[in-house]
Amino acid sequence: MVAATTGLEVLGRTDPEWLSPTTLTRVWRVTLPRLARPGALSRQSPGQGAQ
Hints:
- By secondary structure, this protein is mainly α.
- The chain is built from 3 helices and no strands.
- It has helices at 2-14, 21-35, 38-41.
- The longest helix has 15 residues, at 21-35.
- The chain is elongated and about 40 Å long.
Protein backbone atom coordinates (compact mmCIF):
# COMPACT_ATOMS: atom_id res chain seq x y z
CA MET A 1 0.00 0.00 0.00
CA VAL A 2 2.89 2.34 0.73
CA ALA A 3 4.38 1.69 -2.71
CA ALA A 4 1.02 2.28 -4.41
CA THR A 5 0.44 5.51 -2.49
CA THR A 6 3.94 6.73 -3.27
CA GLY A 7 3.50 5.82 -6.92
CA LEU A 8 0.25 7.75 -7.17
CA GLU A 9 1.91 10.74 -5.52
CA VAL A 10 4.82 10.68 -7.97
CA LEU A 11 2.55 10.24 -11.00
CA GLY A 12 0.23 12.97 -9.69
CA ARG A 13 3.02 15.53 -9.82
CA THR A 14 2.96 15.54 -13.60
CA ASP A 15 -0.65 14.46 -14.19
CA PRO A 16 -3.26 15.50 -11.59
CA GLU A 17 -5.67 12.83 -12.87
CA TRP A 18 -3.66 10.24 -10.90
CA LEU A 19 -4.77 11.92 -7.66
CA SER A 20 -8.38 12.51 -8.68
CA PRO A 21 -11.19 11.14 -6.49
CA THR A 22 -12.15 8.77 -9.30
CA THR A 23 -8.69 7.23 -9.56
CA LEU A 24 -8.24 6.96 -5.80
CA THR A 25 -11.66 5.32 -5.44
CA ARG A 26 -10.74 2.75 -8.07
CA VAL A 27 -7.50 1.95 -6.25
CA TRP A 28 -9.33 1.42 -2.95
CA ARG A 29 -12.06 -0.69 -4.56
CA VAL A 30 -9.37 -3.07 -5.82
CA THR A 31 -7.24 -2.95 -2.67
CA LEU A 32 -9.74 -3.10 0.21
CA PRO A 33 -11.05 -6.61 -0.50
CA ARG A 34 -7.49 -7.89 -0.25
CA LEU A 35 -6.73 -6.09 3.02
CA ALA A 36 -9.94 -6.26 5.05
CA ARG A 37 -11.72 -9.21 6.64
CA PRO A 38 -14.86 -10.19 4.70
CA GLY A 39 -17.21 -8.96 7.47
CA ALA A 40 -15.50 -5.57 7.59
CA LEU A 41 -16.03 -4.91 3.89
CA SER A 42 -19.76 -4.41 4.28
CA ARG A 43 -19.02 -1.33 6.42
CA GLN A 44 -16.62 0.19 3.88
CA SER A 45 -17.59 2.21 0.84
CA PRO A 46 -14.71 3.52 -1.25
CA GLY A 47 -15.64 6.80 -2.83
CA GLN A 48 -18.28 7.63 -0.25
CA GLY A 49 -18.04 11.37 0.17
CA ALA A 50 -15.66 11.77 -2.79
CA GLN A 51 -16.43 14.71 -4.97
